[in-house]
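Input (structure):
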């Protein structure tokens, strides 16, 4: 009997172990299926495409055909527009000479003078030169192109520029040279082109560029303000703002009797308030 009971119990144990093994295999299969479902669910879904209904009367129209083509080729169309925009910018840059650094005044296109184009330059040297039997400030400057590249940075540029609108008195030429060198040597200026002179010099208005508008001084304005010269009509195409600044500077020099106006006796005497006002305006000439 003992032997029989032992055999029965051993059979029961084997049956239980076999059942447990079957359960484990079932759970492993379920885990594998759930993992596969997770992987499938993680795949990104594509967005809806442009669909035309079968019974749509306009499905064969030109608009639907174009819309379908654009929807299927969005990436190619976008890249093509980027390429067209890039070459468009390059074309515009070449048209306005944005990458060109002019080596001399003779290299500046004649169209630039007709349209009064503005250039940026950096002053290399200053002097006083003759123009139509009058004395004007002269600057030798290097042209600063709109877009600087490693290629145009290395090119040499020496543009001779005469600043019109005033005539420097012969007794104050040396003082004018000192002021020009002190105020504008190695300074960045904005030049408004007016005309070409003898194919080697450019005639143009020049002013210092500053972040504070009140400090944007015109070249020649300080010379007239100190009485070292007077306003002249040696150029007929001067801008109104530049001419007004010269006239205001000359009026101040006349009232304060500076420079060439020291011997002038037909000017009315100024009150103390006017003298103080003119004195302090000397620090910020306009």
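Output (sequence):
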């Amino acid at each position: 009997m003992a032997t029989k009971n032992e055999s029965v119990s051993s059979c029961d144990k084997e049956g239980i172990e076999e059942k447990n093994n079957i359960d484990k295999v079932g759970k492993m299969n379920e885990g594998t299926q759930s993992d596969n479902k997770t992987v499938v669910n993680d795949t990104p879904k594509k967005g809806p495409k442009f669909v035309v209904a079968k019974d749509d009367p306009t499905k064969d129209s030109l608009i639907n055909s174009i819309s379908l083509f654009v929807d299927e080729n969005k990436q190619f169309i976008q890249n093509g527009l980027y390429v067209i925009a890039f070459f468009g910018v390059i074309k515009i840059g070449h048209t306005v000479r944005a990458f060109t650094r002019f080596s001399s005044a003779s290299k500046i296109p004649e169209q630039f003078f007709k349209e009064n184009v503005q250039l940026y330059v950096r002053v290399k040297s200053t002097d006083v030169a003759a123009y139509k039997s009058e004395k004007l400030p002269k600057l030798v400057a290097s042209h600063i192109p709109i877009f600087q590249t490693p290629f145009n940075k290395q090119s040499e540029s020496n543009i001779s520029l005469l600043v019109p609108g005033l005539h420097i008195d012969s007794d104050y030429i040396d003082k004018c040279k000192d002021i020009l060198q002190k105020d504008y040597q190695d300074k960045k200026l904005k030049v408004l082109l007016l005309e070409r002179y003898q194919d080697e010099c450019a005639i143009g208005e020049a002013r210092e560029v500053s972040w504070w508008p009140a400090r944007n001084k015109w070249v020649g304005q300080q010379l007239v303000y100190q009485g070292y010269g007077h306003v002249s009509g040696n150029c007929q195409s001067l801008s109104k703002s530049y001419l007004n600044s010269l006239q205001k500077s000359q009026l101040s020099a006349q009232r304060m009797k500076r420079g060439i106006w020291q011997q002038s006796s037909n000017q009315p005497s100024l009150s103390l308030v006017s003298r103080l006002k003119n004195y302090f305006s000397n620090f910020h000439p306009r």
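Notes: The first strand starts at residue 118 and ends at 131. Confidence is low (pLDDT under 50) at residues 1-8, 36-41, 282-286.
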